[in-house]
Every structure is written in structure tokens, then in C-alpha cells.
Amino acid sequence: MARPREFDPEIAMDRAMALFWDVGYEEASLAELLSAMEITKGSFYKAFQDKQSIYLAALDRYNDQVVSGTVAFLTDVSQGTGCDRILGLFGRISEAVQRDGDRLGCFLCNAMIDKAGGGEAEARLQAMTRRLEGAFQRALLDDGWDTKTAQRTARGILSAYFGLRVLGRAGLSSDMAADCIGQVERLLKPD
Fold first, then answer.
1. What is the dihedral of CA 52, 93, 97, 176, to 10 degrees?
2. Which of 1, 95, 114, 135 has its CA 20 to 30 A from that of 77?
3. C-alpha to C-alpha distance for 30 and 45, rounded to whole angstroms
4. How far apart are CA 172 and CA 178, in angstroms?
5. What are the pLDDT digits (tens) for 73-125?
């Protein structure tokens, strides 16, 4: 008779994601991963193939939990105009950093500069990036922007989004956040 799992896989995945988010793939040793997940090596290998497979699962979890929520907000017309939604997102990020001292930044941003790129991880990161870019573009299209201008502007906004998230990890000052949001406001005023 098979023994039941001695850990909650959802909680263990959240803990693994938190570790990868904080220190990255390369810096997260198997021992640190087991400690963070609060599971034994045997349980780990029964539930997961290897460190890479749990990293990919953590990226998928971030995509489902964070990227999907961001895309849903940016494309929800009940939240105001497309420009209002974009500025609202930037405001929420800035407030979280200022209010909560959020120093994790964005797992997607962190993972893109991590040494675990390539292969399946890179494909997942590129797909998440395209989803965010598409959501910014849809928000602009909702406001009547032409497709070409919306696409170009969405890419500029995506760059500002990643920059704001990285700066948040570095301890973003309220002045710097305001300046970043001011630049996004300028992008949202078409010529």
C-alpha cells in the first residue's frame, strides 16, 4: 500500500516559488529548496523530477497567479479606460513598494536575468512577457489607439513596468516611483 504524501503540494510549491523568486535558480541549492519546502529529499523526488522541473512549475504558478491577474486587470473594461488601467497598475505597484516595503520585485523580471534561461524556462518567460505586452496593447486599443501605435507604446510601457519592478526590488523611493509613473503618463499621450 502506498504511503500518503506527508506534505501539502500547494504549500510546498508556494515555498519553492518564494525561494526561486528571492534568490534565483542558480543560488537555490537543493538543500535550501528542501528546507524552504519543508520536505525530505525522498518526498521531493517522489513528487518532482528534479530542481529544474520544480523551477518550471514555479514559473507556471507565477504565470497563473500573478501574470494572469495583471492581464485580467489590464483588460477589464469595468476598471476604467485603458489608460486608467495602465496607470492604476503602476500606482498599485508603487504603493505596494512604499507601503509594504515589497523588495521581491517581479519573479518574471528576476527569472529573465537569472542563469536558468534557455530551453523550457526561456520559452515560458517569453510567453509571459508577450502576454503582458498584449494586455498593455489591448488596454490602448480599448481607448481607440491604432494598432501600430498601440503596439509600439505597449512595448515602451512594458519596459517601464519591468523597470519599476526592478527598482522596487532595489528599494524604490517615492520620488523615483512618481517620475517613472510620469514617464508612463507621457507615453499615454499620443502625438
1. 110
2. 95
3. 11
4. 10
5. 999 999 999 999 999 999 998 888 777 766 678 899 889 888 675 689 999 99
